[in-house]
Write a structure and sequence with these properties.
The complex is a heterodimer of chains A (about 300) and B (about 140).
Chain A lengths: L13 H16 L12 E6 L4 H13 L3 E5 L13 H8 L5 E6 L4 H8 L4 E6 L5 H15 L5 E6 L6 H10 L5 E6 L8 H9 L3 E5 L11 E4 L10 H8 L6 H4 L7 E3 L20 H20 L9
Parallel strand pairs in A: 1-2, 1-3, 3-4, 5-6, 5-8, 6-7, 8-9
Chain B lengths: L8 E8 L3 H7 L9 E9 L3 E8 L7 H7 L4 E6 L2 E7 L5 E3 L20 E6 L4 E4 L5 E3 L1
Antiparallel strand pairs in B: 1-3, 1-4, 2-3, 4-5, 6-7, 7-8, 8-9
The chains are: A alpha/beta (about 300), B mainly beta (about 140).
The structure holds zinc ion.
């Protein structure tokens, strides 16, 4: 894995993901052993569009590894505002750092960067296209909270048509044995047919439903996403549907005692605040796991192991 | 130039009628110094009508472009009035700088100096996807 890039979650084999989860588990168990692992190493966070949470997660990860960070948090504060291309920016900054995490509003920008870069590129989100570290975060969360990634019934709820986190989580979970998908969405926002084709090709069980209440009791994981108002053709449809996809304490009563609730955050109103105190709510832990899996990713791409030794 | 025969050069035969000008443009045949003849609506025993392009020199041809426009095209290489090689083309696995990504959110819409690259993802449906943004392009 050393010196590779992470553009899409499918760049990683199931074996490589398992290794990374194991490494994250080890970091969580013994953070001291990694606190100097990236001493004298630098991570650049190049955020051509702002995303404070993702950027801080990367920076916290590198700092917890004893490394340093530099970068920019929006295109206005970078040379991009003067019209510099992604290729040129990467060629310059690659000379200063050991690894780059970049976010860009245009789809495919990290592929352009990777072609020019002498250091590993991590895609921290390219428009509506990919966000592989979110998927790694989701996988680590499921693995930590459920204790496995196979034999799971996972409910995905909300806008399943445009939700990129949902699509890549499906693609990643397809590789595990005996996973079952329950796709909960309005008719208008169902999973696109090319993703359904992939589920079918993998021989994975799935069903599509419109009401959360009908399936709550079956789920091991409930992955919530936002239903954006602007996705609807008219106000009436939005008003009719929006409450169906709001998770509250009443709906939680229908769920198993050991089900977990996940959400990529930020949420708007799709999870009622009253659910936060439910022990099954995992979305804030999820952000903490996001830092740990990014630590594991940085180490893996730099070829560094425990105590800063070569992996 | 004798358009019935080429003494040394290339004949692109069995082009689907009407597609010769697209090939002429994609291969930039207007930039050649040798003579080029485009025959449209020639009679074909196999397809009814066809187009033919005759190039009066042995030049390097991008066979991927031909395969993309029409995989039934045959390429005849002629030397001293003899057919020395007959090449068949196929729908190429990758396309570089032949088609442009139409996704306005794609990095290729703003970044200068990068190749427009596509990969074939569905042979039967003839679907290509942009190597950057994965947007679909149907032939
Ligand atoms: Zn594209």
């Amino acid at each position: 894995m050393e010196n590779r890039n992470l553009i899409s979650i499918t760049d990683l084999s199931a074996g490589e993901i398992d290794e990374m989860i194991k490494l994250a588990d080890d970091i969580i168990a013994d953070p001291e052993a990694y606190s100097e692992a990236c001493r004298r190493k630098k991570l650049a966070t190049l955020f051509f569009e702002p995303s404070t949470r993702t950027r801080l997660s990367f920076e916290a990860a590198m700092l917890d590894l004893g490394g340093n960070v530099l970068g920019f948090s929006s295109a206005d504060s970078s040379s991009v505002s003067k019209g510099e291309s992604v290729s040129d920016t990467i060629r310059v900054i690659g000379n200063y750092v050991d690894i780059i995490a970049m976010r860009h509003p245009k789809e495919g920008a990290p592929t352009v960067a990777a072609a020019r870069s002498i250091v590993p590129i991590i895609n921290a989100g390219d428009g509506g296209h990919f966000h592989p570290t979110q998927t790694l975060t989701d996988l680590l969360t499921i693995s930590r909270k459920i204790g496995r990634l196979d034999n799971i019934t996972i409910g995905l709820c909300g806008d399943l048509q445009f939700g990129r986190t949902v699509h890549s989580l499906i693609e990643a979970m397809l590789r595990y044995e005996n996973v079952k998908f329950v796709l909960i969405s309005p008719e208008e926002l169902r999973v696109p047919s090319y993703i359904i084709d992939k589920i079918r090709d993998a021989g994975t069980e799935y069903k599509e439903v419109t009401k959360m209440e009908d399936v709550m009791g079956e789920l091991d994981v409930l992955y919530m996403t936002r239903v954006q108002k602007e996705r609807f053709f008219n106000e009436a449809d939005y008003v009719r549907l929006k409450d169906t996809y709001i998770l509250d304490a009443e709906k939680m009563q229908l769920a198993k005692d050991d089900m977990i609730v996940m959400h990529p955050l930020p949420r708007v109103n799709e999870i009622a605040v009253e659910v936060d105190s439910d022990p099954r709510a995992c979305y804030f832990d999820q952000t903490l796991y996001g830092k740990y899996i990014r630590m594991a990713l940085i180490l893996t791409l730099l070829g560094i192991g425990r105590n800063g030794k070569k992996a | 130039m004798n358009i019935d025969g080429v003494s040394t050069g290339i004949v692109l035969d069995h082009i689907q009628a009407g597609k010769s000008m697209q090939i002429y443009e994609l291969l930039e045949l207007d930039k050649l110094s040798c003579s080029v003849a485009v025959v449209q609506n020639a009679r074909s025993t196999k397809y009814g009508k066809k187009d033919i392009i005759k190039i009066d020199a042995l030049i390097d041809l991008d066979l991927d472009v031909l395969g993309y426009v029409d995989p039934n095209i045959t390429v005849d290489i002629i030397k001293d009035s003899k057919l020395i090689e007959k090449k068949h083309v196929a729908l190429p696995e990758t396309l570089t700088n032949v088609i442009k990504c139409k996704n306005p959110r794609c990095i290729t819409s703003v970044e200068h100096g990068i190749d427009q690259k596509f990969r074939l993802t569905d042979k039967e449906k003839k679907i290509y996807r942009c190597c950057y943004c994965d947007a679909e392009f149907k032939v």
